Amino acid sequence: EEKTRSSYEQKLQNAQHSVSKKLLETALAKQSNLIASADVTTTQELLELAEKVGPNIIALKTHIDIISDFDYEKTIVPLKALATKYQFLLMEDRKFADIGNTQELQFTSGVFKITDWADFVTSQVIGGFESLDCFKNVGVVAIIGMSSKGTLTTNSYREEALKVALSHPNVIGGVSQNPIPEEILLFTPGVNLADSGDGKGQQYNTPEHVFKTLHTDFIIVGRGIYKSDNPEQASITYKNEGWSAYLNSLEK
Ligand code: 5BU
């Protein structure tokens, strides 16, 4: 017999971290488990995308270092205003992968000052438990397994990575293409309704597949939305697909 998953309501009751609570509350309020990945390279594209998809997403995932005209006042200030207007969180997919001291500098300094605006960030756990101590004021999504072909996140790596993630109080979730324990939230990229890959190693699954087989909590969709002719409509499609796949995964 297949194990049933916990609902967002059940997870909210058990959530310890303020960011986990905010994500789950937002998911329930907007009936969405969709995170749009804004892998665009100008401030204008970023803000236009946020404006279009904002009502349908629970978080906007950024790679802030690919914005060619980044300027804190022109990029982050209006982005934060849109996040407040449409009630979504900001997830910076920085994938920190260094010693704690360097990660702390990368998190707080430079031009991006991630600590000032991101609600949560992604981090590798390859630097060990203490490397995650610096992310005190945000939630951390730990990279457990990657979606790309040939990734080195083998079974034994994932097992060790999970030990770090599950024991660290700053960690709210993990990125993985495999099921993980329910104590932390599962974020799954590599989701696309039209394609199975991108010719550069990315491997895609459908929302239905990831909710059914992984019991994921949140799907991350990049090109399926921002490359679409109509990103607003695409965000509605992925939102609806994700939500019904979640509801289906509750029955069993
Ligand atoms: P796509 O356009 O839907 O393929 O974008 C996927 C996004 O998720 C992109 O920003 C990646 O950097 C990110 N990602 C991923 O695709 N796979 C992973 O294992 C991790 C992150 Br970790």
Task: Describe the model.
- Helices cover 40% and strands 15% of the residues.
- The protein contains 9 helices and 8 strands.
- The chain has helices at residues 8-14, 18-30, 43-53, 72-86, 100-108, 155-167, 207-214, 223-226, 231-250; strands at residues 34-38, 59-62, 89-96, 120-123, 139-143, 171-175, 185-188, 218-221.
- Helix 1 packs antiparallel against helix 2 (18-30).
- The longest helix has 20 residues, at 231-250.
- The protein is globular.
- The model has no long low-confidence stretch (mean pLDDT 97).
- It binds 5-bromo-uridine-5'-monophosphate (5BU).
- It catalyses: orotidine 5'-phosphate + diphosphate = orotate + 5-phospho-alpha-D-ribose 1-diphosphate.
- In the C-terminal section; belongs to the OMP decarboxylase family. Belongs to the purine/pyrimidine phosphoribosyltransferase family. PyrE subfamily.
- Pathway: Pyrimidine metabolism; UMP biosynthesis via de novo pathway; UMP from orotate: step 1/2; Pyrimidine metabolism; UMP biosynthesis via de novo pathway; UMP from orotate: step 2/2.
- The active site is at 93 (for ompdecase activity), 95 (for ompdecase activity), 98 (for ompdecase activity).
